[in-house]
Specification:
Radius of gyration: 32 Å
Strand content: under 5%
Largest sheet: none
Helix content: over 70%
Distance between the termini: 104 Å
Structural class: mainly alpha
Number of strands: 0
Length: 369
């Protein structure tokens, strides 16, 4: 019995010594940048519970996989290396907090590389690849109990562009719940759900978002667009009328109501509502722009009417041309406000010059050159 115990103890000692040797070999190979050799050693130690029960094993494993993940060649061969590194570091931190700073420093360097990869992939229109890199950044933040909302948001944008609807929805929902770019996130969620044929869900979420952000035009527009797409103009109108009654000084609600009047081919009411919005906010770009476009289109149609008048009806033709100039003058007035706010837009400058010329104000068109 005694001999058996001694033999068993000797076996355990040898097993532990073997594990320690593998860990040491893994550490040295990793230090010498022989990452695959290091990985082989750490895998050999994985069968030993005495090794896997130590923080050191998981930290070494994390270091090895993180070096592989940040190596341009090996990262292609070991596609899941980044996740393996994160899993290993997380386990190491569970077992001990002695090396939090050391692990944090390694992770920070890796995050810098991942961020550059994400940006490069996005610029190359590889949105699926960019999403993966942003997901890695999210995962590493969570290791230290942080939700990095900017990366969650960027990941959502990339997943949306890549067609990963469920992942994009999850990310935007997280951002909205944490009040990061919430209005934009709700709009994106609504639009994606509509595209996915889930209109009822979209309307529920957008109506809830509208309560939280009653002055956000993008949320209102997303909700109303669903009704407009369904040609349910009355429901769109009813939603906006109710909102204007509840909040008569909300220029965003008035703006979207004006849009619905335009969609319903009611330019007279649209003009009234847009002007009400401008009374509340005289520099409201969207309202000025929509009015400008509306008058411009009216001017174009008026031109056609004038051209159809017989040449012998001079007085009627002159009166028609005068009305047309008046309409283009209104368009120019509103386009000018927009142009003053954003003079870098060449298209605004061009259309403003055109309106000046067609309204009989060529000198103003020349001044813009």
């Amino acid at each position: 019995m005694k001999k058996t115990f001694i033999l068993f103890a000797t076996v355990l000692t040898s097993f532990a010594t073997f594990a320690q040797a593998e860990l040491t070999n893994a550490f040295r190979a990793n230090e010498n940048k022989n990452y695959e050799e290091a990985l082989n050693y750490i895998n050999q130690a994985s069968s030993n519970p005495k090794a896997t029960g130590k923080e050191k094993y998981w930290r070494y494993r994390g270091d090895i996989y993180m070096n592989i993940a940040t190596d341009s060649v090996l990262s292609m061969k070991y596609a899941n290396s980044f996740n393996e590194a994160v899993t290993s570091y997380s386990k190491a931190l569970e077992l001990s907090k002695d090396y939090v700073m050391e692990i944090g420093a390694v992770v920070d360097r890796a995050r810098g590389i991942e961020e550059q990869k994400a940006i490069a992939a996005y610029k190359a229109s590889n949105t699926c690849g960019a999403a993966g890199h942003y997901d890695n950044l999210i995962t590493t933040s969570k290791m230290f109990g942080v939700t990095d909302t900017i990366y969650v948001y960027y990941s959502g944008i990339c997943h949306e562009a890549c067609g990963n609807v469920d992942k994009a929805l999850a990310n935007f929902t997280t951002c909205a719940s944490l009040n990061y770019q919430a209005a934009d996130c709700y709009s994106r969620i609504g639009n994606m759900l509509v595209k996915a044929g889930r209109k009822d869900e979209a309307l529920k979420i957008l109506s809830e978002a509208r309560v939280k952000y009653p002055k956000n035009s993008s949320i209102l527009t997303a909700e109303v667009n669903i009704y407009i797409e369904d040609k349910d103009y009355q429901k769109a109108h009813d939603v906006l009328i109710a909102l204007t009654e509840a909040d008569p000084k909300n220029e965003s609600v008035l703006f979207v109501l004006g849009v619905t009047y335009e969609k319903n081919n009611n330019p007279v009411e649209a003009e009234k509502v847009y002007n009400r919005a401008l009374e509340l906010n005289p520099t409201y770009f969207d309202a000025h722009y929509n009015l400008a476009v509306m008058f411009y289109n009216q001017g174009v149609e008026k031109f056609k009417v004038c051209d159809a008048i017989p040449p012998r009806e001079t007085a009627r033709y002159d009166a028609c041309k005068a009305e047309t100039k008046s309409v283009f003058a209104k368009a120019a007035e509103h386009f000018k406000v927009c142009y003053d706010q954003d003079p870098t837009q060449a298209s605004l400058k061009k259309v403003l010059q055109e309106c000046y010329r067609k309204s009989g104000q060529p000198e103003k068109a020349t001044e813009l050159k």
